[in-house]
């Protein structure tokens, strides 16, 4: 007889169940699209467009892009109230935060 996922999870010890929940939440946080991030923060495309002084259609296009300028991504994230950091993960080395992409640096250039 097969079991549902809920039945399997409910059969786990409480500590294990909590760890599974934490890992699931972490994976969801790590893999959000721009659209999902915007929705999670309860912004509409129209509201975000107003903050960026652009049109709703522009927001829609940005959310569908696979490739964009870092400045575009930074503006989008900052309009949502966040900050953008670039982290490089290299084999055999700890992660490195890349500088030179901040708003202050862009204004000085």
List the helices and strands and how they pair.
Elements: H1 5-10, H2 14-30, H3 34-40, H4 45-51, H5 56-64, H6 70-79, E1 86-88, E2 96-98, H7 103-108
Antiparallel strand pairs: 1-2
Helix pairs in contact: 4-5
How would you describe this structure to a colleague?
This protein has 109 residues and is mostly helical. The chain has two domains: 1-31; 34-108, lambda repressor-like DNA-binding domains (434 Repressor (Amino-terminal Domain), Orthogonal Bundle), CATH 1.10.260.40. The chain is built from seven helices and two strands, in the order ααααααββα. The protein has a two-stranded antiparallel sheet. The protein is extended and about 55 Å long. The N and C termini lie far apart (66 Å). The mean pLDDT is 86.
Brief account:
The chain has 109 residues and is mainly alpha-helical. The protein folds into two domains: 1-31; 34-108, lambda repressor-like DNA-binding domains (434 Repressor (Amino-terminal Domain)), CATH 1.10.260.40. 57% of the residues lie in helices and 6% in strands.
List keywords for this structure.
7 helices; 109 residues; mainly alpha; 2 strands; 2 domains; two-stranded antiparallel sheet; 434 Repressor (Amino-terminal Domain); extended
Oligomer: single chain
Strand content: 5-15%
How many structural domains?
2
Quick one: biggest sheet?
A: 2 strands, antiparallel
| Order of helical and strand elements | HHHHHHEEH
Give, in spatial order, the strands making up the sheet with the most strands.
1-2
CATH topology annotation of the largest domain? 434 Repressor (Amino-terminal Domain)
Structural class: mainly alpha
């Amino acid at each position: 007889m097969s079991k549902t996922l809920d039945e399997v999870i409910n059969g786990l010890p409480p500590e294990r169940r909590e760890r599974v929940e934490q890992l699931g939440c972490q994976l969801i946080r790590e893999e959000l699209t721009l659209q999902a991030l915007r929705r999670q923060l309860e912004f509409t495309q129209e509201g975000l467009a107003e903050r960026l002084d652009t049109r709703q259609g522009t927001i829609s296009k940005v959310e569908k892009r696979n490739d964009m300028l870092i400045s575009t991504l930074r503006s989008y994230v900052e309009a949502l109230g966040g900050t953008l950091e670039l982290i490089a993960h290299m084999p055999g080395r700890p992660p490195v935060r890349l500088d030179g992409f901040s708003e202050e640096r862009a204004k000085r250039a």
